[in-house]
């Protein structure tokens, strides 16, 4: 759709275009937003649709939502402005599907991490999972899913993963678009440096990425995908465990 001018122009007739299953890439959003308004449809297998409200105007970015009161959504602060979404049983919980699946519970921790908009209070953006945090051997770590989009902004990068669980430093694994797979490694690493530097501005010294710890995915070992089309983090990191080990041996 994004690559076809006639398809993009057809979107002008639509008030909203909803997307679901995984976060919309910044590249796709930049192509679509001049033609229509975007709105995420968020839910889970256990909880069904999350009864969210789309942003009322362009002052709130497309990827932020508010929750209806009856949804029973509570955001519990964890660290660094990150909150876990927890559903709490309401007196009238007839629309709270999660408590039909788990009738013995009064609360349900989703393990989804959210951030509130800095100025538009009450609007939230999903940014990852509680298990996206990469714990390093010295006890510090970094939240991978918050940083990976910075690398994915590179025009040659199809997907990026940050790993290194239990290692002394994080590792960056990059999957390139097909037309860039034959690129010379040194040149590609050099082209990634500004993006790595941008990530490192948000990290403590002991958890910074390094051009010397970059692994490029091969055609023989592509990133593993979930049924929704997103990257299966744990499975993909397991595929590249030998390469990760090699960086520290």
UniProtKB/TrEMBL annotation:
InterPro entries: Adenylate-forming_Reductase. Keywords: Phosphopantetheine, Phosphoprotein. Pfam families: AMP-binding_C_3 (PF23562). This is AMP-dependent synthetase/ligase domain-containing protein.
